[in-house]
Structures are given as C-alpha cells and as structure tokens.
Design brief:
102 residues; alpha+beta; three-stranded antiparallel β-sheet; 5 helices; elongated
Amino acid sequence: MMTSVDTELMRVLGDPLRLQIVTLLARETLCTTHLVEETGAKQTNLSNHLRVLREAGVVETEPCGRFTYYKLRPNVIAALAGQFAELAESARTAAENKRACP
C-alpha cells in the first residue's frame, strides 16, 4: 500500500493561481485569453504558470489557429486523488497502531 503523495505535483498545485487554472480547466478547455479574463492575472504571469503545469504533465496544449487551448489531463488528477485515498485508508488502519514512548 502506497502511503506517500507525489510531492512535486502537490507543490505545483499548491500555488493558488495554478489551482484556480486547474479548477477552470476541469470545467472546459480554454485558451490563454479566456484564462486571463477568468483569473484577472497578467498574460505573462499566466503563461509562466501554464508552463509549470504543462511541464508537470497536469495540462496539455491544443493549437487552434493563432490560439493555444489548454486542457486538463484528468488521469493525473485521478492518480493524485488515488494517492490521497490510499493515504486516508492507511490512516484509518493506523489509528489502531500506537507506538509506545520509550
């Protein structure tokens, strides 16, 4: 049973703007222009966060004319959710285990 969570992915998703981007992309595929409108972030800042998400494998791009659309890779989020589910299950059984103090 795995009891650790992907710390690099957690670091990537730990940023509030990146988490907001992921939340928006969970609802629909969006281009940078849409994401700027939705988040209020500056385009350069948003592009840097999208690069981090892309490099971490959380989002993928889809060129469409002069625009680039971003979509969430649900399998990455599902894998992370599975890691948390395993961690929760481990915690349920560990509640009965208590290490004695020396």
